[in-house]
Write a structure and sequence with these properties.
- The chain is of the alpha+beta class.
- The chain is built from eight helices and seven strands; from the N terminus they run αααααβββαββββαα.
- The chain has a five-stranded antiparallel β-sheet, with helices on one face. Strands 5-6 form a two-stranded antiparallel sheet.
- Strand 5 and strand 6 form a beta hairpin.
Length: 182
């Protein structure tokens, strides 16, 4: 028996398992199936682990990367990239190509979380073509520079993130003062 059948047998009982017409009613009566939270967390982190490991290597001097959609969930304006091909260009090395089971936004967030400042040369995006209304994705090219807190980021990511937020807030306050807001 597969996992779904085992769960159904446990929640429905042997009598109702033999009668598929009663499944809908029986599933409403019983509590929903519980999912393993640790497994969910592992599955959500797995797509980017190889990319994060490369970006966290202090010996690797990453100069930039490109993003290209491998698979799309096509649903009109709500189109989303499901798998992304990331090509990292590092100083003195051939390009490393990694396929991540994550979208453009998740990959960009992971790169920034690893201690890099991302500068878009050509932004990756999803769009719906006018006329054919066919959803598609445009590849992107990015240059990266290590932030000055890169080593701190590796040792204590929480403290480095708080320091980065304080720096960003300081810049925002300075900009607001120059506008005369505060």
């Amino acid at each position: 028996m597969c996992d779904v059948q085992l769960h159904l047998a446990r929640y429905l009982g042997a009598e109702q398992m033999q009668n598929p017409e009663s499944w809908g009613f029986a599933l409403v009566q019983h509590e929903p199936l519980s999912f393993d939270l640790d497994m969910q967390l592992r599955c959500s982190a797995e797509p980017l682990t190889e990319l994060i490991a490369l970006l966290s290597d202090p010996r690797l001097e990453v100069e930039g990367f490109s993003l290209q959609a491998v698979s799309l969930f096509k649903h009109g304006i709500a189109t989303k990239v499901l798998k992304t091909r990331v090509s990292l260009q590092a100083k003195g090395r051939d390009a490393n190509t990694i396929v991540c089971a994550a979208g453009f936004e998740e990959v960009l967030h992971a790169v920034q979380a690893c201690g890099y400042h991302v500068d878009a040369q050509h932004e990756a995006r999803t769009f719906v073509a006018y006329g054919t209304w066919e959803p598609s994705a445009q590849p992107g090219l990015y240059k990266v520079v290590r932030r000055k807190d890169f080593k701190k980021q590796l040792n204590d990511p929480g403290r480095a993130h708080k320091a980065w937020l304080a720096e960003q807030n300081g810049r925002r306050r300075e900009l607001e003062r120059s506008w005369g807001v505060r």
